Amino acid sequence: MNGTGNSALVGYYVRQYGNPSTSWEANNTFNIGADATLFNNKLDIVVDYYTKNVKGLLFTPPSYALAGEGRPPAVNIGDIQNKGIDLGITYRTRVNKDLDISIGANFGTYTNKITKLPLPGYFDDGSFRFAEGQSISSFFGYKVIGLFQSAEDVDKSPGQDAAAPGRLKYLDANGDDSITTADRVFYGSGIPAFTLGINLGVNWRNIDFSAQIYTVQGVDIYNGLNTQLMSFENGVTNKSRKLLNAWTPSNTNTNIKKNESGSNFSNSAVNNSNFLEDGSFVRLRSIMIGYSFQGAGLRAIGLNRLRVYLQGANLITISKYSGLDPEVVPPSTATKGLDAGAYVQSPGVVFGLNLTF
Looking at residue 22, what is its pLDDT? Predict the structure, then answer.
């Protein structure tokens, strides 16, 4: 061929390899719950306890460059167990003929544990280690306990490869005065301690008001965007202005490691907790006010009811997380807590009409 043709040619490539030994996951679920309605239908209570055991969890392991094209096949990697409690409470009351009020809360908490894996009982995938006895979204690596501040600080600290002022100081987890692979620890989880939603509704004559507050507490987020925005080791691209406060000999009162282009053991060459943050947040997820028009005038034009409303979404978020959105959407269900910048729930305001004919 001389390279001048412009017609499409039929072909194929390997997207993912098959695995004839793979089987479907088997889920065994147990639930026990109770519902109660009290005080003349004013109070509703729903509580549910559940366990879910997954046998033969399907997982696609990471591929290696020498493997060539195509993703590796999915395999039945092990067993996991989920346990949790869901609690819902709603209270409704009519204050008078014009005013109705309702308030509700939904509380949820669960634990996740890997109960079985093939020998050696763990495998690594990026910043995560999947290990028996740990949750499925456990961050693993070297725990950062600060920055080296001086040459004297380096000398008196446990031996660490590439240690230097301004670089990351790791935890000597086993106390042997030397930082090795044996000092890697589980330093966080993307599974929250609990979630809570609060709903409020008020109807007064023709005016209706509702609001929803949602909170997630006790969760860790690995800010994956900061591997680019807060570091020069991965290339010279757009960076965060926070790097202006990076460590220097004259600026030691900071937790931002020094700026340098080379990757090494004491900055970004190994998995560490430098970009792990508290992902807990409280968010005003929704707030809405509406007004309903009714009467003979509407019926004359074929309408039974006309409602106008103004709704705000995600208008207020309270969080210490430095990323764009603490309510992160992970790349997969197995990597909860990893912020790869996939989706941001931005604030918004909507004006709308509801017509009833």
Answer: 74
Query: What is the reported pLDDT for 1?
Result: 47
Residue 216 exposure: Cα atoms within 13 Å on the Cβ side: 21
Query: Quick one: CA torsion of 239, 240, 245, 246, rounded to 10 degrees?
Result: -40
Regarding beta strands 338-339 and 220-223, do their DSSP bridges make them parallel or antiparallel, or are they unpaired?
parallel
pLDDT of 286 above 60: yes
Measure CA 41 to chain center: 37
The 8 Å CB, 24+ separation contacts for 24-30 are: 24/56, 24/58, 25/54, 25/55, 25/56, 25/57, 25/58, 25/76, 26/54, 26/55, 26/56, 27/52, 27/53, 27/54, 27/55, 28/52, 28/53, 28/55, 29/53
Nearest-angstrom CA–CA distance, 284 and 208: 18
- Ranking 92-106, 155-169, 327-341 by mean pLDDT, the lowest is 327-341
Q: Model-level pTM? A: 0.85
Report the first-to-last Cα separation within the chain, whole angstroms: 68
Q: Is pLDDT of 306 > 90?
A: no
In the structure encoding, which two tokens stand for residue 293, read together? 């028009």
Residue 3 reports pLDDT greater than 60 = no
Name beta bridge partners: 271: none
Could you read off the pLDDT of 53-66 as tens digits, one per residue? Answer: 988 777 766 655 55
DSSP 8-state code for residue 44:
E
Of 65, 61, 221, 79, nearest to 125 (Cα)? 61
Contacts for 129 with CB less than 8 Å, ≥ 6 apart: 122, 123, 138, 139, 140, 186
Token match 């991965």: residue?
234
Within 10 angstroms of residue 338's Cβ, the number of other Cβ atoms is: 22
Contact 252, 149 (CB under 8 A): yes
Residues 218-247 have pLDDT tens digits of 999 999 999 989 998 877 788 999 999 999
Residue 130: closest CA among 199, 209, 69, 60: 60
Neighbours of 67 (CB within 10 A): 11
Task: Determine the Cα–Cα distance for residues 127 and 80; give it in Å rounded to an integer.
Answer: 20
